Each structure stands twice: as C-alpha cells, then as structure tokens.
Amino acid sequence: MPINQIKKMLYELINYKDSEITHIFSNYEDPFIVSLKKGENPNRFLITFINEQDTELLTDLETAARVIDELVQNKIEEDSDFTMQ
C-alpha cells in the first residue's frame, strides 16, 4: 500500500464527521487498530497492536503513515516470500 494511499485514508478519518473514529487492520500478521480522537491540534492517531496487550503508539499524521506503511509492507514481503517457496 503506497504511503500516499495511507495518508489519504488518515485524512478521510480526520474529515469524518464523528469525533472519534477507529479503523481496524485485521489482515496483517500483527493486526492493529488506528483511532483518531478529534479536537486535538495537531490531530493525533493512536495505533493499538491487537496481539500485544497494552502496546499503543500515539503519533501525528506523518508518523502514523510511516508506521502503518511499515506494518503493511512487512505483511506484503512475508506473503511474497511464502509464495516464492
């Protein structure tokens, strides 16, 4: 998933009308949840790792996009390694 696509998804969360939005990424080896609680400036994203209890990362948009990109890229690389065997 290109980082620009990730940023677009995060901007969509920012522009959504609800004050608290959550998006679940469950198809990855380390599933994670991205939450945005609006009202803070700059907007802050909370990335919660489902398989690791209480492991959370509070980030700005740029950092959130890089973290998500890395998580998604790890999954893509693992999938391609598996299919090449």
Describe this structure in words.
This is DUF1797 family protein. It comes from Peribacillus glennii. The structure is a single chain. By secondary structure, the chain is α+β, with helices and mostly antiparallel strands. The protein has one domain (3-75). The protein contains 2 helices and 4 strands. It has a 4-stranded antiparallel sheet. β1 (20-25) and β2 (32-37) form a beta hairpin. α1 (3-15) packs across α2 (61-84).
Strand residues, percent = 15-25%
Task: Determine the structural class based on helices, strands and strand pairing.
Answer: alpha+beta
Approximate helicity band: 40-55%
Q: How many E-type strands?
A: 4
Order of helices and strands: HEEEEH
Q: What is the structure about, briefly put?
A:
The protein has 85 residues and is an alpha+beta fold. It has helices at residues 3-15, 61-84, and strands spanning 20-25, 32-37, 45-49, 56-59. It has one domain (3-75).
Features:
alpha+beta; globular; DUF1797 family protein; 85 residues
Layout of helices and strands:
Blueprint: H1 3-15, E1 20-25, E2 32-37, E3 45-49, E4 56-59, H2 61-84
Antiparallel strand pairs: 1-2, 2-3, 3-4
